[in-house]
């Protein structure tokens, strides 16, 4: 059975919701940005603002010089949550499985629902119509046989339009598009990949798809296979509902409560090693780390940090974990528990430092550390968790 995936979204969602509450803003250049600092960056802009030369990531100060008539509104999280819940009332009616992509945008897996609601493109049109009729929000819809194709199709059209990519036509659909169209290449860790593609004059996805994978590997390393599949419109990732979003975590309980930094960091690094081992076994990488500590007096502190590029190696993550530990430990009071969480998990092909950003000696050190981690994985698998423990020399 062919998969039927729909990506439905409201372009510039926060702008659209703000205009619902204040129709006087409907024709003005409008931007969303924090107003508590002049260095704030635009997080969303209206089509009128784009035409005036504004873009996401531009500073408010610079944007005002470019477009003096721009009106700036602060983010309104509670209003956005209410608007998203309204959209979900309609999305849930048709989609047994749905995944949030960003504010006001959802991917729906409609595979097997044809007898109930009809073809996927009909359902997409119904969702568009009902959202527009009930909430006066004008959305776009991309239809395809996988998430990548559906999301890409949705980025190519204007509100009220629908783009249906029929099964089997994915390579033809993807071929003329710029490599920068791919959602997966918008991550900061992929900038070097885009730079290498520019060096090779591979401007379109068709150029990438026609290039032998062996040749791509010389320039892109392990990214080559994944990028070649994307360029052909191949994507096997499932639609994951919010409760199934990939995350790993482990909690350490201290009995009695503990305050010795050496004991605390040792246990924390043990946890990191186990979580990294699980990541490698699942062929996934981590994009975000969180540490939550609970003191003896039940006060909780949580800190988060993004990991760029995503990785599954202790040698890359240990410094991030220690930084989180230092940020959390602001009181000299014993700890009851520590919880380390990994989120933003993606397929193994997207991990890595594959390029020559490190000195040769540092690259060798990284390689030795990774080989040691693999050897430890094998020891633990054969002789058990307690066969060898994480330690530190001074």
List keywords for this structure.
single chain; about 400 residues; alpha+beta; Alpha-Beta Plaits; DNA polymerase, domain 1; Dna Ligase, domain 1; 3 domains; five-stranded mixed sheet; five-stranded antiparallel sheet; globular
Summarize the structure in words.
The structure is a single chain. With 394 residues, the protein is α+β, with helices and mostly antiparallel strands. The chain has helices at 13-21, 47-51, 60-66, 77-94, 114-117, 120-135, 147-155, 170-174, 191-199, 205-210, 213-220, 223-231, 261-281, 314-328, 360-383; strands at 5-9, 30-32, 44-45, 71-73, 97-102, 105-109, 140-144, 162-164, 247-258, 284-295, 300-311, 335-343, 346-347. It has three domains: 1-167, Reverse transcriptase/Diguanylate cyclase domain (Alpha-Beta Plaits, 2-Layer Sandwich); 176-231, DNA polymerase, domain 1 (Orthogonal Bundle), CATH 1.10.150; 246-387, Dna Ligase, domain 1 (2-Layer Sandwich). Strands 5-6-1-7-8 form a five-stranded mixed sheet. Strands 9, 10, 11, 12 and 13 form a five-stranded antiparallel sheet that branches. A hairpin with a 2-residue loop joins strand 5 and strand 6 (105-109). Mean pLDDT is 85; it is low at 349-358.
């Amino acid at each position: 059975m062919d998969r039927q995936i729909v990506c439905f979204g409201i372009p510039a969602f926060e702008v659209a919701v703000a205009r619902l509450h204040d129709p006087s803003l409907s024709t003005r250049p409008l931007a969303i940005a924090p107003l508590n600092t002049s260095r704030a960056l635009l997080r969303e802009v209206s089509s009128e603002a784009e035409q005036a030369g504004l873009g996401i990531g531009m500073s408010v100060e610079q944007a005002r010089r470019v477009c003096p008539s721009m009106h700036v509104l602060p983010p309104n999280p509670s209003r956005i949550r209410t608007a998203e819940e309204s959209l979900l009332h309609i999305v849930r009616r048709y989609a047994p499985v749905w995944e949030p992509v960003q504010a006001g945008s959802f991917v729906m897996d409609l595979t097997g629902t044809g007898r109930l609601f009809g073809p996927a493109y009909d359902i997409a049109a119904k969702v568009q119509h009902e959202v527009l009729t009930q909430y006066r929000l004008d959305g776009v819809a991309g239809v395809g046989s996988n998430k990548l194709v559906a999301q890409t199709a949705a980025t190519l059209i204007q509100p009220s339009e629908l783009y249906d990519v029929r099964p089997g036509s994915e390579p033809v659909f993807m071929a003329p598009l710029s490599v920068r169209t791919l959602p997966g290449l918008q991550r900061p860790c992929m900038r070097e990949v885009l730079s290498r593609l520019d060096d090779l004059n591979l401007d379109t996805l068709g150029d990438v798809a026609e290039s032998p994978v062996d040749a791509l590997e010389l320039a892109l390393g392990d990214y080559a296979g994944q990028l070649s599949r994307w360029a052909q419109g191949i994507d096997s990732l499932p639609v994951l509902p919010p409760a199934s979003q990939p995350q790993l975590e482990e909690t350490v309980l201290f009995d009695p409560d503990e305050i010795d930094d050496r004991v605390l960091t040792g246990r924390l690094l043990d946890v990191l090693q186990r979580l990294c081992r699980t990541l490698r076994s699942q062929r996934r990488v981590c994009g975000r780390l969180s540490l939550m500590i609970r003191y003896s007096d039940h006060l909780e502190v949580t800190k988060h940090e993004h990991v760029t590029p995503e990785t599954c190696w202790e040698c890359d993550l240990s410094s991030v974990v220690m930084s989180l530990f230092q940020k959390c430990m602001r009181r000299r009071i014993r700890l009851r528990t520590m919880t380390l969480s990994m989120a933003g998990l993606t397929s193994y092909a997207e991990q890595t430092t594959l390029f020559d950003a490190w000195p040769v000696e540092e690259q060798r050190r990284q390689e030795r550390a990774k080989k040691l981690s693999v050897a430890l994985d094998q020891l633990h698998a054969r002789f058990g968790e307690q066969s060898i423990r994480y330690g530190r020399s001074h």
